[in-house]
Amino acid sequence: MQKDSFLKFKNIIKNSENIVITSHWSPDGDAMGSSLALYNYLLLLNKNVKVIVPNPYPEFLNWLPGHKQVIIHQQNPKKAEKTINQADLIFTLDFNSLKRIEKMGELLEKVKAPIILIDHHQQPEKYAKYYFHDVNACSTCELIFEFISGLGGKKLIDKKIAACLYTGLMTDTGSFRYPSVTTKTHMVISELLKTGIIPAEIHSAIYDTYSYERLKLLGYLLSEKLEVVEKLPVAFFTINENELKKFNYQKGDTEGIVNYPFSIKGIKVCALFMESEGIIKISFRSKGKIDVNKFAREHFNGGGHINAAGGKSTFNLEETAKKFVSLVSSLF
Ligand code: 5GP
Ligand code: MN
Fold first, then answer.
1. From the alpha carbon of 30, which atom of ligand 1 is closest?
2. What are the tens digits of pLDDT across the range 63-73?
3. 190-to-29, 170, 185, 200, 207 alpha-carbon distances in Å
4. Against a cut of 0.90, is the pTM above it?
5. Mean pLDDT, all residues of the chain
6. Phi first, then psi: what are they for 135, rounded to 5°?
């Protein structure tokens, strides 16, 4: 845990006019939820604030309050660069290595504005000036709640901010069932509900949005593509680009699929390998003390949390899966 004092944060925010909030490549519910919660909060403080993310976020997040104002670097690089260079304060949320924002990382390496990192992933890099980092937080949204509260802004948390925070807390905890869930998580949720947000509506907005093809893709992967590694409690999927095309793949369609094999009794490690934009994007999940963050860092150019990590590979799909199968016994 590394947390600078709220006094410092208060002062620096007070003295900053133009504030940029960024989050990681392939933004998920926690990335967008935490960024837009902080965005809506800073708007209430009359700041000129912008959220910039490297590439598009899934459609099931395009109802979050403030999402229309988000700048996507991949679609609007000039505007993103100009906004970053004009900022006098930058927040980086839900990631801790500049590699996680691809080309935007080069922009952030050069900025003079101080950077505040707020994150819950393992092993933060040293690129920021200030840190609000805790690997025990279930989500960056949980940390944003703590951050806003620490600044004395709890009473400003309205329905908009609460909806954003609820989204990240829910999606990063698999709807409040991962071991990262604590009494604190539920206390935060209880505070958020007081604003009048309706959990069932948010759950539905995120999860009841499958297209017919997305559900068929899930069915296909479960029936045709699920492999269990011989003699090990390990299961994985591979998905190639043709398969994605066949099911009219849209961003976010494979989200959550990596977890399905856990419902097989005894499975302790799951993986998903997917062809995406010329590389293989990898997701790892594990149970208990099995550390897939370390595994992803050492072998697949990635990282994340002990029980949920990601990475990439420039080998082809079959070679990547083979490499995984040959290395995975080292986790046990
Ligand atoms: P997912 O499998 O859902 O894409 O990612 C699982 C976790 O690992 C997330 O917390 C995500 O931020 C992290 N992660 C995913 N891909 C990468 C990667 O390429 N590098 C690093 N360092 N972390 C990743
Ligand atoms: Mn997160």
1. 10
2. 999 999 999 99
3. 19, 13, 9, 14, 21
4. yes
5. 97
6. -70, -15
Cβ(311) to ligand 1 under 6 A?
yes
Fold of 2-207: inorganic pyrophosphatase (n-terminal core) (3.90.1640)
Cα–Cα distance, 250 to 183 (Å, whole number): 36
HEC assignment per residue over 149-180: HHCCCHHHCCHHHHHHHHHHHHHHCCCCCCCC
Give tens-digit pLDDT for 100-146: 999 999 999 999 999 999 999 999 999 999 999 999 999 999 999 99
- Answer yes or no: are the C-beta atoms of 115 and 127 closer than 8 Å: yes
- 3-state secondary structure at position 70: coil
Say how far apart CA 5 and CA 9 lie, in whole Å: 7
How close is the Cα of 53 to the center of ligand 2, in Å?
15
- How large is the C-alpha radius of gyration of the chain? 20
Structure token digits, residue 66: 């403030």
State if residue 303 touches ligand 1 by the CB under 6 angstroms criterion.
yes
CA of residue 92 to ligand 1 center, whole Å? 15
| CA-to-CA separations, 75 to 49, 210, 234, 268, 275, in angstroms, rounded | 19, 25, 38, 39, 22
**What is the third-level CATH fold of 212-331?**
Diaminopimelate Epimerase; Chain A, domain 1 (3.10.310)
How many CB atoms lie under 10 A from the CB of residue 193? 13
CA angle 34, 66, 33 (to 5 degrees): 20
User: Any residues with CB less than 8 A from the CB of 231 and at least 6 apart, and which?
Assistant: none
Give the mutation target among 28, 32, 100 for probing the ligand 1 site: most ligand atoms within 8 A of CB. 100
Domain locations in the chain as residue ranges = 2-207, 212-331
Q: Is the CB of 309 under 6 A from ligand 1?
A: yes
In SS3 terms, 261-276 reads as: HHHCCCCCEEEEEEEE
Ligand 1 touching residue 283 (CB < 6 A): yes
